[in-house]
């Protein structure tokens, strides 16, 4: 869905690589760490506003994401590090109605590389 959305934008290709990676990381975090019942859905949203692509992943879980340090030998713990490093900003907010949360990230367009 994200690829289709970005391909329809005149400059969508400038967001694609980072946005696809970050959306995948946020979604994987929601799947792996949510304490919501298995029948609850995970929802994604995205929109381009003021030159930044806003990605959101909503879930019904109560846990909040937190950056942690991962050693070279750790097999886990790098998803939010990637989000933190590659996004302009990111955060977590409660969902309307008080059930669950959503994690969001803002993605700036990459600069064009001269050929």
Dominant shape: globular
User: CA-to-CA gap between the ends?
Assistant: 30 Å
Strand fraction band?
15-25%
The helix/strand order is HHEEHEE
SSE blueprint and pairings:
Blueprint: H1 2-7, H2 13-33, E1 43-49, E2 52-59, H3 79-86, E3 89-94, E4 101-107
Antiparallel strand pairs: 1-2, 2-4, 3-4
Helix pairs in contact: 2-3
Please sum up the structure shown.
The protein is α+β, with helices and mostly antiparallel strands.
Explain this structure.
This protein is α+β, with helices and mostly antiparallel strands. About 30% of the residues lie in helices and about 25% in strands. The mean pLDDT is about 90. Helix 2 packs antiparallel against helix 3. It has 3 helices and 4 strands. The chain has one domain: Histidine kinase-like ATPase, C-terminal domain (Heat Shock Protein 90), CATH 3.30.565.10. It has a 4-stranded antiparallel beta sheet with strand order 1-2-4-3, with helices on one face. Strand 1 and strand 2 form a beta hairpin.
Notable characteristics:
about 30% helix; Heat Shock Protein 90; alpha+beta; about 120 residues
